[in-house]
Amino acid sequence: MDLSLSNLLHFSSPTKTLSFPSKPLPFFTNCNPRRWCYYHPTINQNNNTPTPTVVIKDDDGFVLEDVPHLTDFLPDLPSYPNPLENSQAYAIVKNTFVNPEDVLAQQIVVQKGSPRGVHFRRAGPRERVYFKPEEVRACIVTCGGLCPGINTVIREIVCGLNIMYGVNNILGIEGGYRGFYSRNTMELYPKVVNDIHKRGGTILQTSRGGHDTNKIVDNIQDRGINQVYIIGGDGTQKGAAAIYKEVERRRLPIAVAGIPKTIDNDIAVIDKSFGFDTAVEEAQRAINAAHVEVESVENGVGIVKLMGRYSGFIAMFATLASRDVDCCLIPESPFYLEGQGGLFEFVQQRLKENGHVVIVLAEGAGQEYVSQSENATVEKDASGNKLLLDVGLWLTQKIKDHFTNVKKMPINLKYIDPTYMIRAVPSNASDNIYCTLLAQSAVHGAMAGYSGFTVGPVNSRHAYIPIGRVTEATNIVKLTDRMWARLLASTNQPTFFEQT
């Protein structure tokens, strides 16, 4: 297939878009066996401008959003045969190395004649690597809140580097980004991390904020680190992008790899975030407990508050999995309490029909009502996230007041808040496997010389994704999609809004 650049090669950033003139080129070039070398022309930008997303588009609507490579600014960097060539484990694999032309489509459902759409570079081991194993000094850092599976990711990065590539020099940076300049580190090797996947939390400890790009890169240089693995959420990944940009500015042979983490499953592009399956499974315990409580009393009302700052995925999937939930309230779907079609009316109706009702509530739902009720000012944590008010306690009190004072109807209300229990548990079997794939993909990418990238599954296959793509928007529940319709059909709850 030939590539026509009549519309075509674009570099997008928040401040400018550069277009290159039309010039027919073969879609895959042989100038460098590791990549399609015309994706990354040099662009001079100031330090505050994020690394541009590199986009190529052909006449069929094929779009590739590529990730940076160390040779983009270090063109003479030598490469070496991949040690996996001599691996006993990989000897049975038919195709040990990923074809450099392999890409993954972001949209898997298309129509005849429609554009081919956005693609990402496929993750996996490459035939050539850009680090000698004996010269690698890697580090791992965890930032932000806890999530099931962090320890598994740490373990598998360490084991992947050591067992697959023969790397013996791996540091754990303790206490989040602050650990880089407080010099708190621990040596990591397979024996140290052998059973940490059985524990919740992170053995490296974590913190919010504390990001100072220049200080961090200074200390990375001082320690002789040349591979950086950063596990964290939206703010953490933005910090990883800034670290990569400073590394690029200083022209340092340092690979920066991000592993996106959030219990809320609100990361864009990827299929789901690690720890989400575990969170949904653990949420079942709280929902089951609420159901037992309210079923055992007269007019029982159970409220379960689950995590979900801006996205209600945990609440939605836990509700679908449970089948004992009567109403699910999430940040994406506004609700109201009083009047026809309101929550009070629905609760009364369910109590009349079934004698009990269970409500699942995401922590970010109804925040506008709580803030108005309590005249609260907006505060933020060290990561810049808005501190949420306790909507669970607020709703509990509102329902109590309504049925006691207005309806003169006795109810037995039980409120369960398992939010921190859910995020502190070890990851389940599904998430353990997923975390292993994420960690190994990150290791393969860093050893192959890619940098400024994050990893994740796109349509069930792992890809290298520009960090900016997973931080530019928050993944939210779409109220017009079938999954939310399935929930409404399951609970038979009000939609709380009029169809337009």
Protein architecture, described:
- By secondary structure, the chain is α/β, with parallel strands linked by helices.
- It is 32% helix and 18% strand.
- The chain is built from 14 helices and 21 strands.
- The strands form 4 sheets. Strands 2, 3, 5, 6, 8, 9, 11, 12, 13, 14, 15, 20 and 21 form a 13-stranded mixed β-sheet that branches. Strands 17-18-16-19 form a 4-stranded parallel β-sheet, sandwiched between helices.
- The protein is elongated and about 80 Å long.
- 47% of the residues are buried.
- The model is unreliable at 1-52 (pLDDT under 50).
List the helices and strands and how they pair.
Blueprint lengths: L1 E2 L6 E3 L4 E3 L5 E2 L26 E5 L4 E5 L13 E2 L21 E3 L11 E6 L5 E2 L8 E5 L7 H16 L4 E4 L4 H5 L2 E3 L2 H4 L19 H10 L4 E6 L1 H17 L4 E6 L15 H20 L4 E7 L6 H10 L4 E3 L13 H12 L1 E7 L4 H8 L16 H16 L5 E5 L2 H6 L4 H19 L5 E6 L2 E6 H5 L10 H10 L9
Parallel strand pairs: 6-9, 11-12, 11-14, 14-15, 15-20, 16-18, 16-19, 17-18
Antiparallel strand pairs: 1-4, 2-3, 2-5, 5-6, 7-10, 8-9, 9-21, 12-13, 20-21
Which keywords apply here?
disordered N terminus; four-stranded parallel beta sheet; alpha/beta; 500 residues; 13-stranded mixed beta sheet
Short description:
With about 500 residues, the chain is α/β, with parallel strands linked by helices. The chain is about 30% helix and about 20% strand. The protein contains 14 helices and 21 strands.
Oligomer: single chain
Query: What structural class should be given to the helix and strand makeup?
Result: alpha/beta
Question: Number of DSSP helices?
Answer: 14
Q: Outline the biggest β-sheet.
A: 13 strands, mixed
Unreliable segments of 5+ consecutive residues: 1-52
Query: How many strand elements?
Result: 21
DSSP strand (E) fraction?
15-25%
Radius of gyration: 25 Å
Beginning-to-end CA distance, first to last residue = 45 Å
Helix content range? 25-40%
Average per-residue pLDDT, rounded, comes to: 86
| Global outline | elongated
